[in-house]
TrEMBL record:
This is histidine kinase. The lineage of its organism: Bacteria, Bacillati, Bacillota, Bacilli, Bacillales. Pfam families: dCache_1, HAMP, HATPase_c, His_kinase. It is found in: Cell membrane. Residues 329-381 form the HAMP domain. Keywords: ATP-binding, Cell membrane, Kinase, Membrane, Nucleotide-binding, Phosphoprotein, Transferase, Transmembrane, Transmembrane helix, Two-component regulatory system. It comes from the Bacteria. It catalyses: ATP + protein L-histidine = ADP + protein N-phospho-L-histidine. It is a multi-pass membrane protein. One of its GO terms (cellular component) is plasma membrane. InterPro entries: Bact_2-comp_sensor_kinase (IPR050640), dCache_1 (IPR033479), HAMP_dom (IPR003660), HATPase_C_sf (IPR036890), HATPase_dom (IPR003594), Sig_transdc_His_kin-like_C (IPR004358), Sig_transdc_His_kin_internal (IPR010559). Its main location: membrane. PANTHER family: SENSOR HISTIDINE KINASE YPDA, SENSOR PROTEIN KINASE HPTS. GO terms for molecular function: ATP binding; phosphorelay sensor kinase activity.
Amino acid sequence: MRQAWRKRIRAVLRIILLRDCTMRTKLLVFSALLIVVPLCVTGLLSYLRSAEVLEKEAQQYSWQIIEQVNTHVGYYVNDFEISLLKIVNDPVINGFTKMGSRDELEGSGMTPAIKQVLRNAAYSRSDISNITVVLEGIRTIDALTNEAADPSNDPHEEDWYSRVGSNYEPKIFPRVVRFNDREEQVITIARRLVSPLTLQPIGMIIIDVNFKRFQEIAERVVVGRTGYLYILDAEGRYVYHPNGAEIGVKAGFENLDLMLLGGSGSLVTASAPKRLLTYAHSPFLGWTLVTSIPYAELLQGNAYIRRTIVTTIVITLAVAAVFGIGFANSLVRPLKRLYGYMRRVESGDFTGHLVVESKDEIGLLTHGFNKMVVRLRNLLDEVYFSKLRETEMQLRQREIELKALQAQINPHFLYNSLDTIRGMALEASQDPISEIASSLARLLRYNLRHSSPKVTLEEEAYYADVYLKIQKYRFEEKLDYVIDLPEWAGKQAMAKFSLQPLVENSIVHGFEPAFGRTRLTITAYRESEQAFVVQIEDTGMGIPEERLADIRAQMKEKDVIADGTHIGLTNVHRRIQYLFGEEYGVTIDSTLEKGTVVRLRLPWTET
């Protein structure tokens, strides 16, 4: 179960991390995500924050407008209240309130004076349409009708009349009044009249203000580009609305009850089209002033921000794509070039070299791969040539074995022949011949003995002496030799049959061409703590410089397996190096007509 979950997680991670996609695709996708995601988050937060800020600013702006309108209307209405007080406190009106009946009023003759007071007050301001005084049960008098006639509109019979409170607080409301043959929209300010005798409400004084004046005040209010202001009375009826037909009609929008509670605030309507309503209640007027702004208009600035963010994201994404493609190519192209070169190396092509174009990680990788290819090429060459040398050595080994087998036949044949000669010499009483044959037989026996390739210097000196004795029979007094070896040198190791060939060379190339007596000396001395030298010195003809140089060169280069002349020195030199190491071997010095010195440098061992 756990393994199944792990497999699912790995499969999901493989898809999310684009593990099966090319590096170019990964770079483009991840760079786009790194740019687009932060931009989208930032843009979304900015958009939401800006919408919130714009809404708050619109609310603040609306409240300021409402406050200004409220103050202005308050001052405006307050002026009319002052006018009401002036009228009420007028002696004529005061006398009118003391009338007990219509007959008493008619008998007092005050009606013209009352009308005159009302007309004076009405004419004092151009925005007053009419002023009406109602003395309940007695008479209603206004400023417009004739002195003898009653007003055509008796306020006492209208429904709003009963809603005016009995206290001294005025009530303000809109209504339509008929004057003679026309109707006029007015704002009515009504206030109860109180009897100075009983202090009981006995009537009402009413000022009808021309609605156009009030409308001019409201229309001066500009809320946004298409927003507007309207005013609601305590019952929710429109006191003012840009559409005059709505005045006096009860508002039907949502949350009306919340607005009429007397507070202030704002809300966004849920029904389309959405509108931002900001409202505030005026305690003085008893009205609620409301501003209405289309929510779409409010967010126009926000829409601009949204378009700007989207445009910025698109442009940034395009720029990022261009740079991402360039960056991806700068990474992928060297890797693909390196991959192609790796395929060539994989197929065995070690030629060529990649140009390192940068000093970054890819450049270091390319440089390291070049070094690895060079190293592989060198190793391959070493293995190839080592195999070639091994094959060559095997061929030579077979040739040596063949020659060795052939050489085993010849010495035995010579050995048997020498025994025959020695026997015949003894029968003929030829002791020198018998001795020579015996010495040659010992040399051959020493040569044929398959023992260790190393022997002691003492043993080598013995057989050199045997050889020199043979040559002594030949050269007699012309050859003089001395073998003078220190006691410590006798047990030192050296290559088998290495001293006799050098002695033979001295005789063949030094003594035979010379005239007179020639001396050969074999000695040994310590060269250092690790080596000693066996020296063969003769006083023969010596070797010319050119020939000496050839001999030294042959010792380094000549193939001793191949047939040829003058291979004795080279043979001994190579065998010493094979047995004891490259630092040992044979050296030769010679002076023409004075002699030759051959030195065998050998390792010294404690015996």
